[in-house]
């Protein structure tokens, strides 16, 4: 078994060379030994290799005499729903999220959909699995095995839960362009918005594990061109896209402009704090000013936390925060088991825009774009991530208003700030800069890039 498939938050590798049915059988068995669940929820995404990998996972679990709740093809946030809503002991999904089609992997949770990451047991599962010497020749489920498998369709209950996050009676007859990137989002959106006055212009709608237009990740700029153009051509009110496992949600204005996850975090925080003052919201340290200002203006408390879904969820629970958001377009909700969800932002934005007289681009310009100027995340390969972070800290600490090392290093001045952090999985350093003017942002961005690349 290739140990490199075990990442900080999940398991991912190229099928079948790096991850295959034998590996998944061992990993699923190791999960059972580590968690010791009474039953395990198992689902999968639409990748071509997912059905056979899921079958081997089910076989591994029932071979331990443990019941399987087979929830079929699901988004990752449906896994969180299934485990937490029905009070199951744990579960996992066969998925490689937004990776290219040749990849597959697993995402794990335990009771209450608590994440299992490298800090909370994922590497323990790795160490158990790698010590298994056996090989399985047959992953077919026998009649005896099938007695331990319960098939459960959770979509209707999941949709009912999503609908609690917005007042659908307030929806105006808006037109949206929606792009699930051939992944799990399309069918759920159909069910969510049926019998509403929302018109959906559908793009890349039907599930297709070949991902015929390339890697299913809207964070890749080239992947946004198609939906941006379609929004303008159809005179839609906005655009929305998801990655293949539909747990991240991305928005575009009626002009086709992409909205950074940073600003969506701030906007969703504002919506929730206006209805629920004095609550806490959690955010990552990459870009912070807009979120902190929204919290201050709405009697809320903004708390900076280390990036990564396991860290955000842990802090959400600790603080009993109403909401959390990351620049990567993961959005977390207390009333969704402190987990992230890709459809809740959509219904919240639909309700919010239905109450406004301005377009989404006008709202973004007035609230954020004329005040906060950001670089976007810039990634560079470097020989020594820690050395570069130390070098930047030494250079920019003098005269700084604030320095923190919650995640990498963040250094703040009166009119600009930056965050520099390393990747969890590769020799890459990630830079984010924000400033009170475009010119200053570009100047400091270029300064820091020169330091990084020298």
Helix content: 25-40%
The helix/strand class is alpha/beta
Specify Rg, calculated over alpha carbons: 22 Å
Q: Mind telling me the CATH superfamily name of the largest domain?
A: Alpha-D-Glucose-1,6-Bisphosphate, subunit A, domain 3
SS strand fraction: 15-25%
* Largest pleated sheet: 6 strands, mixed
User: What's the overall average pLDDT, rounded?
Assistant: 97
**Strand line-up of the largest beta sheet:** 1-5-4-2-3-6
Q: Count of helices?
A: 15
Summarize this structure as a short list of keywords or feature phrases.
Alpha-D-Glucose-1,6-Bisphosphate, Chain A, domain 3; six-stranded antiparallel beta sheet; 15 helices; 454 residues; single chain; globular; 3 domains; alpha/beta; TATA-Binding Protein
Question: Could you explain the architecture of this structure?
Answer:
With 454 residues, the protein is an alpha/beta fold. The protein folds into three domains: 152 residues, 3-Layer(aba) Sandwich (Alpha-D-Glucose-1,6-Bisphosphate, Chain A, domain 3), CATH 3.40.120.10; 85 residues, Alpha-D-Glucose-1,6-Bisphosphate, subunit A, domain 3 (Alpha-D-Glucose-1,6-Bisphosphate, Chain A, domain 3, 3-Layer(aba) Sandwich); 81 residues, Alpha-D-phosphohexomutase, C-terminal domain (TATA-Binding Protein, 2-Layer Sandwich). It is 36% helix and 21% strand. It is built from 15 helices and 22 strands. Strand 15 and strand 16 form a beta hairpin. The radius of gyration is 22 Å and the shape is globular.
């Amino acid at each position: 078994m290739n140990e490199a498939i075990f990442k900080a938050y999940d398991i991912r590798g190229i099928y079948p060379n790096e991850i295959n049915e034998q590996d998944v059988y061992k990993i699923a068995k190791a999960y059972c030994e580590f968690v010791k669940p009474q039953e395990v929820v198992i689902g999968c995404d639409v990748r071509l290799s997912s059905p056979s990998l899921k079958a081997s996972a089910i076989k591994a679990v029932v071979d331990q005499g443990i019941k399987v709740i087979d929830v079929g093809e699901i988004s990752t946030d449906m896994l969180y729903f299934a485990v937490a809503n029905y009070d199951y002991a744990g579960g996992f999904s066969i998925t490689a999220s937004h990776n290219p089609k040749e990849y597959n992997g697993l995402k794990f949770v335990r009771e209450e959909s608590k994440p299992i990451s490298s800090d909370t047991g994922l590497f323990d599962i790795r160490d158990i699995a790698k010590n298994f010497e056996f090989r399985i020749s047959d992953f077919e489920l026998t009649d005896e095995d099938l007695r331990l498998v319960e098939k459960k369709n959770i979509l209707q209950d999941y949709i009912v839960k999503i609908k609690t996050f917005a007042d659908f009676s307030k929806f105006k007859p808006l037109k949206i362009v929606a792009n699930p990137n051939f992944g799990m989002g399309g069918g759920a959106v159909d069910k969510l918005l049926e019998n509403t006055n929302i018109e959906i212009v559908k793009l890349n709608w039907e599930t297709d594990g070949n991902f015929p237009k390339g890697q299913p990740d809207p964070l890749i700029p080239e992947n946004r061109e198609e939906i941006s153009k379609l929004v303008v051509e159809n005179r839609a009110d906005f655009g929305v896209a998801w990655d293949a496992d539909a747990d991240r949600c991305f928005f575009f204005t009626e002009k086709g402009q992409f909205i950074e996850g940073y600003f969506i975090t701030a906007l969703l925080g504002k919506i929730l704090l206006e209805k629920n003052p004095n609550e806490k919201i959690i955010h990552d340290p990459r870009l912070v000013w807009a979120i902190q200002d929204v919290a201050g203006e709405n009697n809320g408390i903004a708390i900076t936390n280390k990036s990564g879904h396991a860290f955000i969820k842990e802090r959400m629970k600790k603080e009993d925060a109403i909401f959390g958001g990351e620049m990567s377009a993961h959005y977390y909700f207390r009333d969704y088991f402190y987990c992230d969800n890709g459809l809740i932002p959509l219904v919240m934005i639909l309700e919010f825009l239905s109450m406004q007289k301005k377009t989404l681009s006008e709202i973004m310009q007035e609230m954020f774009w004329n005040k906060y100027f950001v670089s976007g995340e810039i990634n560079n390969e470097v020989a020594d991530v820690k050395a570069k972070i130390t070098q930047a800290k030494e250079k920019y600490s003098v005269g700084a208003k604030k320095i923190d090392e919650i995640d990498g290093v963040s250094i703040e001045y009166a009119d600009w700030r930056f965050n520099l952090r390393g990747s969890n999985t590769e020799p890459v350093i990630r830079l984010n800069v924000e400033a009170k003017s475009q010119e200053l942002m570009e100047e400091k961005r270029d300064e820091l890039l020169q330091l990084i690349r020298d």
